[in-house]
Specification:
By secondary structure, this protein is of the alpha/beta class. Among the domains are: about 160 residues, ABC transporter transmembrane region fold (Up-down Bundle), CATH 1.20.1560; about 40 residues, no CATH class; about 230 residues, P-loop containing nucleotide triphosphate hydrolases (Rossmann fold), CATH 3.40.50. Helix content is about 60%, strand content about 15%.
């Protein structure tokens, strides 16, 4: 009979806990590395604060035994009591507590500064690293989930750094100091206190373990809810068009119920923990009071009334930090989960770039030789350092592109392109047509190296594009996408995004080339009109014209037009198409076509089907062949 199956969930929980602990260690290391002086100052100030409180409590014994008790005896005996020594003692006690208050105030201010500084540092690191990540990462992660890292997960770290860290340091120093003081006052009562502390630690371990599990689930559930909300906001029109409001609500409620359930369980155990430890602390206090009172009355081990009063205060002081730490465990657990997710982003492999061929300004001589220029010339060349012999050659950028037997898949087990070969001479217009999923956009993703080919080669002006630095490669390519993205800012700033050093005249010239100048001038503030919400105050055609102007100002030799007119009406399409025609002149252009009427004048049309090029030729050639292109263009079924 086979034995029981291994508990895989326990194994996963252990792995998650190990990763969370490792992330917390990394966070502490980052804090100490960035703020060593501040952390040392905080520890010293906490030590001073705790020492002042302990000294104040210890002085209570002297206050009672050496001042108050003798005065009571003097009054009982009919003698005149001198209150001046008592007043001096009270002032000394007050001075201890005042110093402790000042130290506490200062170290809390420092920790707030440290917490906010760390949050800024982590956000900066996350954003800088995110900009270095490949497109593959954003294609495989929900944008709302990524946003949750910058908001919810970061905030859990702030709470832990500004609240939990100082309290835990304070609690640790307090426990040690108070324990030593209690042993000095009474060993038997200290043993009683430690027995109750053991019970408190047992309760803390059990309840914190249960709450910690659900706090991790809560963090993941929050990310899922954020991702769903972000997705629904972007797709609200689609939801309404198909009347799927109820389904969207049901899906959100499912995710929200999961969040509610995990949060409720996490906070139930977390909220129970404090009262349980508080009551156990009260039990300890009562036991020490009763036992200590009996011992004091019996005169056992010289336990005086002053010692008993000090010990009772220490008993409370000893239980309180344990209770505080148990409450802070929840923040620590959430911070561990948040830190794990944040460091998972920071540990993502950045986009690799082994290229060494760069793009430089060039001077082109009449005989065809090319040399590097130290100023802008309007002519570009590839600067190619040859490792074999240490020489450097220059090749003028013309826009010649060749794909040679390329295979590719987004995941290793499924290829989407099979043995794709094509060439585009400088200045030619190449169009891709085919059904959705045929591989058209994938080809353009490979041309700009959003993804790298698995097999085969792509050559740009005769150079393997893997040898070209990605930044230089993409600088030479202009892309107009179907889904235009505009940034918050003025229209001029959005056009200038294609070349940040462009002058106002360059911006207007690019707008005129793209046929956008007319509608821009009709806007209330013209080129200074502020765009909000990804251009929500503009029509789809106007946004597309701005996207064309943005590419025009970059002046790239190669263009990629990914169904750039598929989302606009026929009248607007003519304006946009005219702008694109101006932009395409003299440039190598790759067009993904939705409307086949826009590509009739292409030099070559590639028909793709399931990742393979099945037909190629001019419009007239393909129509004469009567194949797949003819069927797509005419809507007639061939050989039916």
């Amino acid at each position: 009979m086979p034995g029981p199956r291994p508990n895989r969930s326990v194994k996963l929980d252990r792995e998650q806990k190990a990763k969370a602990r490792q992330s917390l260690k990394r966070l502490f290391k980052d804090i100490f590395t960035r703020y060593p002086v501040q952390i040392i100052a905080v520890v010293i100030l906490i030590f001073v604060s705790v020492l002042c409180n302990v000294q104040g409590t210890m002085f209570m014994q002297v206050l009672i035994d050496d001042y108050i008790t003798p005065m009571i005896k003097d009054v009982a005996a009919g003698r005149t009591a001198d209150f001046s020594p008592l007043l001096g003692a009270i002032i000394r006690v007050m001075s201890f507590y005042i110093v402790g208050i000042i130290a506490t105030y200062v170290y809390n201010l420092i920790m707030i500064y440290v917490a906010q500084g760390m949050m800024k540092s982590i956000r900066d690191r996350m954003f800088v690293h995110m900009e270095d990540l490949p497109i593959r990462y954003f294609d495989s992660h929900a944008h709302g989930d990524i946003m949750s890292l910058y908001t919810n997960d970061i905030d859990t770290l702030r709470q832990m750094i500004s609240q939990s860290m100082p309290q835990i340091i304070s609690a640790s120093i307090t426990v040690v100091s108070v324990l030593v003081s209690m042993f000095i006052l009474s060993v038997p009562l200290t043993i009683v206190t430690l027995l109750m502390v053991g019970v408190m630690l047992f309760a803390t371990t059990k309840l914190a373990g249960l709450s910690g599990k659900y706090f991790v689930e809560q963090q993941n559930a929050i990310a899922d809810v954020n991702g769903n909300v972000e997705e629904m906001m972007q797709g609200q029109k689609v939801v309404k068009v198909f009347n799927h409001e109820e389904e969207a609500i049901a899906n959100f409620e499912k995710l929200n119920d999961r969040l509610c359930e995990s949060s409720a369980k996490a906070n139930t155990y977390a909220n129970v923990l404090g009262p349980v430890n508080a009551q156990l602390g009260n039990v300890s206090y009562v036991m020490v009071t009763v036992i200590g009172g009996v011992m004091a009355l019996a005169g056992v081990t010289g336990l005086t009334l002053g010692k008993l009063a000090s010990f009772m205060s220490f008993n409370k002081s000893f239980s309180m930090p344990i209770n505080q730490v148990s409450q802070q465990l929840n923040f620590i657990i959430m911070a561990m989960a948040g830190a794990g997710r944040i460091y998972a982003l920071l540990d993502e492999e950045p986009e690799t770039d082994d290229g060494y061929v760069t793009l430089v300004n060039a001077n082109a001589a009449v005989d065809g030789t090319v040399t590097e220029a130290d100023h802008k010339t309007g002519v570009w060349a590839w600067k190619h350092f040859h490792k074999a012999d240490g020489t450097t050659t220059y090749r003028k950028l013309t826009g010649d592109m060749v794909m040679d037997d390329v295979n590719f898949g987004y995941v290793p087990e499924k290829e989407v392109l099979h043995h794709v070969s094509l060439y585009a001479n400088a200045g030619q217009k190449i169009a891709f047509v085919g059904a959705t999923g045929a591989g058209k956009t994938t080809i353009t993703n490979l041309l700009n190296r959003f993804y790298d080919v698995e097999d085969g080669k792509i050559r740009y002006d005769g150079i393997n594009i893997n040898k070209i630095k990605k930044a230089d490669l993409r600088r030479s390519l202009g892309i107009v996408l179907q889904d235009t993205h505009l940034f918050t800012g003025t229209i001029a700033e959005n056009i200038r995004y294609g070349r940040l050093d462009a002058s106002d005249e360059d911006v207007k010239a690019a707008a005129k080339l793209a046929n956008a100048d007319g509608f821009i001038r009709r806007l209330p503030q013209g080129y200074d009109t502020v765009i909000k919400g990804d251009g929500a105050n503009l029509s789809m055609g106007q946004r597309q014209l701005l996207a064309i102007a943005r590419v025009a100002i970059a002046d790239p030799p190669v263009l990629i037009l990914d169904e750039a007119t598929s989302s606009i009406d026929t009248r607007t399409e003519k304006i946009v198409q005219d702008g694109m025609d101006k932009l395409m002149r003299g440039r190598t252009t790759f067009i993904i076509a939705h409307r086949l009427s826009t590509i009739r004048n292409s030099d070559c049309i590639m028909v793709l089907d399931q990742g393979r090029i099945i037909e190629r030729g001019s419009h007239e050639d393909l129509m004469q062949q009567g194949g797949k292109y003819y069927q797509l263009y005419t809507g007639k079924i061939v050989n039916a």
